[in-house]
Amino acid sequence: MAVTTRTVWASERDTRLDRWFHRHFPQLTQGALQKMLRTGQIRVDGKRVESNTRLLGGQQVRIPPMPEGQAPKAEPKPVDPHDAVALQRLVIYRDDSVIAIDKPQGLPVQGGPGIAKHVDGLLDALRFGSDERPRLVHRLDRDTTGVLLLARTPAAAAALARAFRGRDVQKTYWAIVVGRPHPLEGRIDMALIKQGGAQGERTVPSDAREATRAVTLYRTVDSAQKRAALLELTPLTGRTHQLRVHCAAALNCPILGDGKYGGAAAHPDGFGDRTLHLHARALHLPHPDGGTLELAAPLPPHMKETFTFLGFDKPRTPPCRRRA
């Protein structure tokens, strides 16, 4: 394996360098990683770093040759033809630099323990004749649906990482929440911190010094009296599970189906579908080649059914396009 360079995704911002390496190179031992850091073989933007260095989206990580027996598999498993066709059907926009898909509920973006199928492992199906394999530039939770953007070239990946790292990307989410927020619209400014536990890692509100500021704008689009409401959510920051925590902890209106943060309140009587009702509706951002990229994804089937059940109007989905 030769020396290579990888771009840090915008969604990986604030990840410790050692955790980043173990995510991308799970075979690498902690001892081997520390040795490569001590000897300066691993660098970020050309500089020597420590294992606890926090990464920024768009940074370049120098990857030295892995020690014998600890190198990643050279080639990913071939994509099953049926999976390839299914993934290609999810494409809602494609040009020479970017691809956008409408990610379905239940499909993880990345692999992990017990995860056999995920978007990152299927990306060879989206080459469409290109020599380059598409790259993830941000992430969605497994059960969050909607717009997921991919870069088709290294230059596009770097440009998109810069856009996500700054304030150039406007993200719009739709969520059906239990209850109706008061006031009906506003701004949530609540710092969050990751916390371990018996049930796995969670993100929780915190006033600790190491907590990270998280800001969300919200607006009530429709409601079924005080039983449930449709919210339009605009995150101004990108913390893990930010929208789910803000709805449950700040608004006291957990997202329907979000038992992780809403507990029993997220599964009220009368609602048959216990799936998370959070949808990445739209992205507006600078296109890597100039102009503005406008992307939107239609409602997933389980949210369509809940819209009908609650009597909410189903809005038209605007076309995906690049404006000059």
Describe this structure in words.
The protein is built from 7 helices and 17 strands. It is globular. The longest helix has 12 residues, at 154-165. Strand 15 and strand 16 (292-296) form a beta hairpin. It has 324 residues and is an alpha+beta fold.
Outline: globular
Largest sheet features: 11 strands, mixed
End-to-end gap: 42 Å
Alpha carbon gyration radius: 20 Å
Contiguous runs where pLDDT drops below 50 for at least 5 residues: none
Secondary structure blueprint with pairings:
Layout: E1 4-7, H1 17-24, H2 30-38, E2 43-44, E3 47-48, E4 60-63, H3 81-88, E5 91-94, E6 98-103, E7 135-136, E8 145-151, H4 154-165, E9 170-178, E10 185-189, E11 192-195, E12 202-205, E13 215-224, E14 228-235, H5 242-250, H6 259-262, E15 278-286, E16 292-296, H7 301-310, E17 321-323
Parallel strand pairs: 8-15
Antiparallel strand pairs: 1-4, 2-3, 2-4, 5-6, 6-8, 7-8, 9-14, 9-15, 10-13, 11-12, 13-14, 15-16, 16-17
Write a concise keyword list for the protein shown above.
eleven-stranded mixed beta sheet, alpha+beta, 324 residues, 17 strands, four-stranded antiparallel beta sheet, single chain
Give a quick rundown of the structure.
By secondary structure, this protein is of the alpha+beta class. The protein is built from 7 helices and 17 strands.
